[in-house]
């Protein structure tokens, strides 16, 4: 009975760990996407400003 409890706890810990890793990866990907979008937007805005100054 004790062994079964230990096995269950270990399985739960492993599953939770895997889920946490996946969540962390997803969060990192989301942050990277947002940063990329911000950089692209900034570049476009800078280009628009530069073109406006040139005109």
Structure description:
The chain has 55 residues and is mainly alpha-helical. It has one helix and no strands. The radius of gyration is 24 Å and the shape is rod-shaped. Keywords: Membrane, Transmembrane, Transmembrane helix.
Counting helices, strands and paired strands, the structural category is: mainly alpha
Helix proportion:
over 70%
Radius of gyration computed on alpha carbons: 24 Å
Distance between the termini: 81 Å
Low-confidence stretches: none
* Residue share in β-strands: under 5%
Counted beta strands: 0
Largest sheet: none
How would the global form be characterised?
rod-shaped
Report the total helices. 1
Q: Sketch the topology as an H/E string, one letter per element.
A: H
Task: Name the average pLDDT.
Answer: 92
Keywords: Membrane, Transmembrane, Transmembrane helix
Transmembrane segments: 7-28, 34-53
What's this, in brief?
By secondary structure, the protein is an all-alpha fold.
Features:
single chain, 0% strand, membrane, transmembrane helix
Which SSEs are present, and which pair or pack?
Layout: H1 2-54
């Amino acid at each position: 009975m004790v062994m079964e409890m230990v096995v269950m706890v270990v399985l739960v810990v492993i599953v939770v760990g895997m889920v946490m890793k996946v969540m962390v990866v997803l969060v990192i990907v989301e942050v990277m996407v947002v940063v990329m979008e911000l950089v692209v937007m900034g570049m476009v805005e800078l280009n628009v400003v530069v073109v406006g100054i040139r005109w």
